[in-house]
Specification:
two-stranded antiparallel sheet; 5 helices; 2 strands; elongated
């Protein structure tokens, strides 16, 4: 996948005081989104926007783009 997390997002959220329990109970981030973060899967644009708001950062601070290997013909 070309987009990857540059940081451990859940650890960064925890440092800001957002445990997975708090995120879920206060409905800040859905349970399915928390599970995606645990699995290293990408969130949608709205989820990334929420992470940026909580972490007070820009998408480029948490995401990197690594192009897929070009297909040889």
């Amino acid at each position: 996948m070309p987009l990857q997390y540059k940081i451990n997002v859940l650890a960064a959220l925890k440092e800001k005081g957002y445990s997975t329990y708090r995120l879920n109970v206060e409905k800040i981030i859905s349970h399915s989104s928390i599970q995606k973060l645990k699995d290293g899967k990408m969130l949608g644009a709205d989820g990334i926007a929420t992470l940026c708001k909580l972490l007070d950062c820009q998408p480029g601070d948490i995401l990197s783009y690594e192009p897929d290997e070009p297909k040889s013909e």
